[in-house]
Amino acid sequence: MAAADPEIARLVRAEERLQAETLRLIPSENYVSAAVLAATGTVLTNKYSEGYPGRRYYEGQQNIDPIEELARDRARALFRAEHANVQPYSGSPANLALYLAFAKPGDTVMGMSLPMGGHLTHGWEVSATGRWFRPVSYGVRRETGRVDMDEVRSAALFHRPKLIFCGGTAVPRTVDFAAFASIAEEVGAVLVADISHIAGLVAAGVHPSPVGHADVVSTTTHKTLRGPRGAMILCGAEHAKAVDHAVFPGLQGGPHNHTTAAIAVALREASGEDFRAYARAVVRNAARLADELLARGYDLASGGTDNHLILVDLTGRGVAGKPAAKALDRAGIVVNHNTVPYDTRRPFDPSGIRIGTPALTSRGLTEEHMPQVAAWIDRVVESVRTGNDLVEHQVRAEVAELMAAYPAPGLPVD
């Protein structure tokens, strides 16, 4: 790469250093293993494979079909699902395929609103899913920050949606899949559980599984699952044909075979005891970090976390989310600014930050490190309020020193 394109090679090397030296707290980011990283860079990227194993539109699939079959078999076994489709390019296309499979334009669909923690593709107004379908949103209670299932049921009975989405992108609490399933059955809706954020926790048994409750499960394959940037759809045998036809030819062409191979590798890794221990550590680290932030007077959405994700409302600190996130980034702590439930600020300049523990846990950090992480966050947020820029440089040096002692998996950085 250095010879063919030195500019790109320089930027890749710079990103390697950045990922090695910084404390990555964005809950949707993680480090893949060297094996997963290697699979994404194989000659499989040269191969075009429209269709499914045994039913391709191109010849020369002698090696591709077994790779996809391995990925599907491992997904079914890990999540105890009857059917798995591993071809979606990412989480949003996977969800779009489910609209195509189970709804028609103009149908009513229901999902958690984006400002409350939902995802764009759960029927939010700026997404195609909110423009092509009639969206109905639910949120969380102001007092508790948790979903009120009685309110969800009332809304579903009134609006009678064809699809109900549960799960989201900023949900720090356990999703009650059984309660959602009961409501979906009562109104005759298809229930989709989007576990993109918690798939690794579900696979490891540290979060309840939607399989057996939801009609369909969609997920990305990165985040807590520690795979490549791809997606999967899991379902019962009765929905397999509709799901497969919606993915191909309904929504996309040939799969990305190098990604399929990397998904297979990640699923094999996720089936081991080391991964289960990792997932348990993710949850322990998040709980400890939440406790440490609460002890420092921070306001957390829902009062804490059950999983890997913490949503911090900075209103009481006199600092907005965006300047805090940028200051933390300069200090070597990578988070993202995020809306909080009932936020009074604009989405691009919200009141909160979203943090999580998947990546730092992959590096081997434990509960013992969480007081230090919370202290760094507190120092930087306070420096934004007081205008003391020197704190950012001090914290960045301290962060780099700790990161050097805990090398990131898969990174070719000394």
TrEMBL record:
GO MF, any single term: protein homodimerization activity
Pfam families named in the record: SHMT (PF00464)
EC numbers: 2.1.2.1
InterPro entries referenced in this protein's UniProt entry, alphabetically: PyrdxlP-dep_Trfase (IPR015424), PyrdxlP-dep_Trfase_major (IPR015421), PyrdxlP-dep_Trfase_small (IPR015422), Ser_HO-MeTrfase (IPR001085), Ser_HO-MeTrfase-like (IPR049943), Ser_HO-MeTrfase_PLP_BS (IPR019798), SHMT-like_dom (IPR039429)
Catalytic activity: (6R)-5,10-methylene-5,6,7,8-tetrahydrofolate + glycine + H2O = (6S)-5,6,7,8-tetrahydrofolate + L-serine
Residue ranges that the Swiss-Prot or TrEMBL entry lists as coiled coil: none
Cofactor: pyridoxal 5'-phosphate
Modified residues (N6-(pyridoxal phosphate)lysine): K223
Binding site for (6S)-5,6,7,8-tetrahydrofolate: L114, G118, H119, L120, E238
EC primary class: transferase
CC annotations in GO: cytosol
Recorded family membership: Belongs to the SHMT family.
Subunit text: Homodimer.
The protein's role, per its UniProt record: Catalyzes the reversible interconversion of serine and glycine with tetrahydrofolate (THF) serving as the one-carbon carrier. This reaction serves as the major source of one-carbon groups required for the biosynthesis of purines, thymidylate, methionine, and other important biomolecules. Also exhibits THF-independent aldolase activity toward beta-hydroxyamino acids, producing glycine and aldehydes, via a retro-aldol mechanism. Thus, is able to catalyze the cleavage of L-allo-threonine.
HAMAP family (UniProt xref): SHMT (MF_00051)
Stated name of the protein: Serine hydroxymethyltransferase
Source species: Yinghuangia soli
The encoding gene: glyA
